[in-house]
Request: fold
Amino acid sequence: MIMHKLLVVGLLFFALQVSAEEATFAGGCFWCIEAAYQDLEGVSSAVSGFTGGTLKNPTYRGDHRGHFEAVKIEFDPDVISYKELLAIFWHNIDPFDNRGQFCDKGFSYRSAIFPVNEKQRNEAIASLSRIGEQFHGETIYTEIRDASSFWPVEEGHQDYYKKNPIRYKYYRRGCRRDARLQQIWGDEAGVH
Reply:
């Protein structure tokens, strides 16, 4: 009985020590955004899916109109901050393209930040402002939108860059994603 109580107290202490937050970003193809975050220290998960629309249960090969392709990230803010996640986001997108990202065009491929609380919203606004100052005179099309329901995409699209590394690299190269990121961000580009 004493061991059981100690185990319960220990588990409760551990649960209180682990702090997790969520962040959601849309940056074109969710495979590429997921790959940018998945293996970072402090990130416990990066899940590809859809958000921003009103349609329930959107699917990749079916209907996902009104939704963005996005990635929901669970992270430990004591290890990696939301501000750091924002920097990674910016360095993995083309904020000047209002028609989509790289070779993927259409509403669902546009870039957006979906803050889950006021603190994240303020940090997202500040980061957008910094990008605007850095690229003075350029129009930044990346939006900051209210967080909404997140619908994970079918399993075949989760961890695509790991499951299909050759196809994934061919896709990135074919879309000239890395070349464009290098052109915009230089050494800070999120090339994978």
